[in-house]
UniProtKB/TrEMBL annotation:
InterPro entries per the UniProt record, alphabetical: ABC-2_transporter-like
Protein source organism: Actinokineospora alba
The UniProt record lists the keyword RNA-binding: no
Keyword Transmembrane helix in annotation: yes
Organism ancestry: Bacteria, Bacillati, Actinomycetota, Actinomycetes, Pseudonocardiales
This protein's name: ABC-2 type transport system permease protein
Length: 261
């Protein structure tokens, strides 16, 4: 059923091929500008937070790839507020299918594939040029880290969208954490200081998206003093985040009251 909906969405959005191609290229260019920003900063400072060029490139591309995958799969969850406002969410509850997966499938945006493919290519390049002492554990982690990052970002997409069950116009606040977390994780955590780093890196967990996995892959100890084993915990943190997001979503659905329209 979900497959049929996805195929219908892809067919409908690719009917106008020129428009679709422009949207894909535009999204790729925007992602490229985000990466270019990092290199502009690097070219001025020579290093970022005590990290060299290949390390920053690996960290940035890991974050960008993970976010692009999450945005492709669950980024359209922010449409929930429109469904709640108009009462259209009722139609999702009437079908014997998961309301969340229906929401994601119906609003799937294939134009975001370009960013994910671009992120994958750049991440592979970053792995190739980084000074990594490859072994089985690092090879597995190199594959698992972006998956864990995507699950982590996806959890924030779902949790942020779920706020619409209580506060329909919560989109901006949710984006502050989702997109703010993306920007935070694109740079070494050592660049930030004080409470800001504590909140985003530790309390919210964005340090597990790219910073700590990069340290594990290049074999560096954390300059901030985190124990070495913590560098390998991104998958566990992502699973915890996904579990909390799922619990929050179910609570939101139970709280939902139809507009009656």
């Amino acid at each position: 059923m979900y497959g049929h909906v996805l195929r219908a969405q892809i067919r409908s959005q690719t009917q106008y091929r020129t428009s679709f191609a422009v949207e894909v290229i535009g999204s790729v260019m925007l992602n490229g500008l985000d990466l270019a920003t990092v290199f502009v900063l690097f070219s001025v400072a020579g290093s970022l937070g005590g990290f060299g060029g290949t390390e920053v490139f690996l960290l940035t591309t890991l974050s960008a790839f993970a976010f692009a995958v999450a945005d492709l799969v669950v980024g359209n969850a922010d449409k929930l507020r429109d469904y709640v406002r108009t009462g259209l969410f009722d139609t999702l509850l009437l079908r014997p299918l998961s309301a969340l997966w229906q929401l994601l499938a119906v609003n799937f945006a294939p134009r975001r594939v370009g960013r994910a493919v671009q992120g994958l290519v750049l991440y592979v390049v970053a792995l190739a040029i980084a000074d990594i002492d490859w072994d089985l554990a690092r090879a597995v982690y190199a594959v698992g880290a972006p998956v864990a990052g995507a699950v982590f970002f996806g959890s924030f997409f779902i949790a942020g969208s779920t706020l619409a069950f209580w506060w329909v116009e919560s989109g901006e606040m949710a984006n502050a954490f989702t997109y703010g977390g993306r920007d935070f994780s694109a740079y070494p955590s050592t660049m930030y200081g004080g409470w800001f780093r504590t909140v985003f890196a530790s309390a919210l967990g964005f340090g597990f998206v790219a910073y700590l996995p990069t340290l594990a892959l290049v074999g560096r100890a954390d300059p901030l003093g985190a124990p070495d084993w913590l560098r390998w915990c991104s998958p566990a943190v992502a699973l915890i985040a996904a579990g909390l997001a799922a619990l929050f979503w179910r609570t939101g659905v139970r709280h939902y009251r139809s507009t009656g329209s």
